[in-house]
Write a structure and sequence with these properties.
four-stranded antiparallel beta sheet; 11 strands; Immunoglobulin-like; alpha+beta
Length: 202
């Protein structure tokens, strides 16, 4: 009478399957652990830069021409360019021009390019776009704090409204186009809360 043979499981196969399961589970747990961390880093990066004027408040008389520099602080991040959209009361402020600032953060005139410079006086908006010129400089990014644009405007000589006009940067809360600060390899803007300026009209 032939002795019944009991088939034993293949120990190597069992260990291989177990290791495979451990690797899969470990990979999933690792992804879940590191994903929030990357999201947190992106959130922090997305608010690192600021746009502001040299002053928070100035005084001006009716008919007076005012010159202000727009200052970009990159927050320690290398940026490739910026979109500046200014919003104002067209009955109080007559926008004249926005030009690249002297001693520009983006370098000498050959090292940057202004691709948009539009004033829509009736709507009370002005748009200025500047970015590092890829063809003229070995570095297409800039880092630090400095002026990127100079804004020239006048207080309307017959203005009779509120004696405090505000010139602000259109920000992320606004609809349609918005002020932005751009970096290489990131689709969004890293602009934090832009700072407005109050103009006391006397």
């Amino acid at each position: 009478m032939e002795e019944n043979k009991i088939k034993r499981p293949n120990k190597k196969l069992f260990i291989g399957v177990l290791l495979f399961i451990v690797l899969i589970v470990g990979g999933v747990l690792g992804f879940m652990y590191f994903r929030p961390q990357r999201t947190s880093q992106t959130t922090s990066l997305a608010r690192s830069a600021t746009l502001s004027f040299l002053y928070d408040e100035i005084s001006a008389s009716l008919g007076e021409t005012v010159t202000l520099d727009v200052v970009l602080d990159t927050g320690g991040v290398s940026v490739t360019g910026a979109d500046v959209i200014l919003v104002y009361d067209p009955e109080a402020i007559v926008m004249q021009e926005i030009i690249p600032a002297d001693n520009n953060l983006f370098g000498a005139p050959a090292e940057y390019e202004v691709t948009e410079n539009i004033i829509m006086q009736e709507n009370g908006q002005a748009f200025f776009r500047i970015h590092a010129n890829d063809a003229k400089t070995p570095s297409t990014t800039r880092q630090g704090k400095g002026a990127i644009a100079t804004v020239n405007f006048a207080i309307h000589p017959t203005y009779e409204g509120d004696k405090a006009a505000i010139l602000i940067f259109k920000d992320e809360e606004a609809q349609n186009a918005t002020s932005r600060v751009l970096i290489e390899g990131y689709q969004g803007s890293i602009l934090g809360d832009p700072r407005s300026i109050v103009i006391d009209i006397n």
